[in-house]
Amino acid sequence: MATTDTTPQGNGSDRPGWRLRARLRALYHGGSKTAVRFRLAVLVVDLLIIAFFIAAPLLRDQPLAFYVIDYLIAALLAADLAARALCYSDIKDWLRRPIVWVDIFILATLLFPAWLFNLGFLRVLRLWTLINSDFFWRTIGRRYDDTEVEGVTKALTALVTFVFVATGFVYTAFLGKTEGLSGWIDALYFTVTSLTTTGYGDVLLPGPWGRIVSIVIMLAGVTLFVRLGQALLRPHKVKFPCERCGLQVHDPDAVHCKACGNILCIPDEGR
């Protein structure tokens, strides 16, 4: 995966806040045991936050507790985003990353729940941004980074994220407007039956827009299932860039690059 240049430019030890930035870089990008434990703790908190996002529609019956947790999570995400920004030498380059903008949007839905209530289901995208981040794979170890495990995990995450985003959209847009759709579980049931093309017919979204949503869920579901199947069944490859042509992946026992014939020396970590 691409790495980020966090090397300080020149002698910046006299700048205000340099020690804080150096400490954050060591925690977010370092390889020490303390840094790994810190990143694992951040991942655990992230997963708990994602669990709250998934369960949020079921918790709105207690508005006071819901908003307290909502703003607490907003404070945590804001602190995490600020810390990640400080880890980068070039903030503009950091802001060009799509994952960052997804996290900023999620933060906005937390800070302004009254105005962005109908878009709250998009918070589940945090699961996709987390699993697709270098931060996640660098933390759990190079044993899984750039391996078949990473490909399968990302494909499965894309499928799960889509299920919950689609469920949230159906729940927000069609609750009370169609027979059989009276709660979040019903919306999840409709999403899964449409995504798997089972289509029992007991829950149908009304009107042309309802049919369009159903079609999108079915097509996206088939695509994501195919992607997951490919990740599970395709032959195992290793990431080893060819020095001559730049081909990124090869068979584990490859001696020559299949694109240009260059001799390869792929390390075998199992030996």
From TrEMBL:
GO terms for molecular function: voltage-gated potassium channel activity. One of its GO terms (cellular component) is membrane. The chain crosses the membrane at residues 40-59, 65-87, 99-117, 155-175, 211-229. InterPro entries: K_chnl_dom, K_chnl_Slo-like, K_chnl_volt-dep_EAG/ELK/ERG. It holds the Pfam family Ion_trans_2. Residues 160-226 form the Potassium channel domain. Its main location: membrane. It is a multi-pass membrane protein. It is found in: Membrane. Keywords: Ion channel, Ion transport, Membrane, Potassium, Potassium channel, Potassium transport, Transmembrane, Transmembrane helix, Transport. This is Ion transporter. It comes from Brevundimonas subvibrioides.
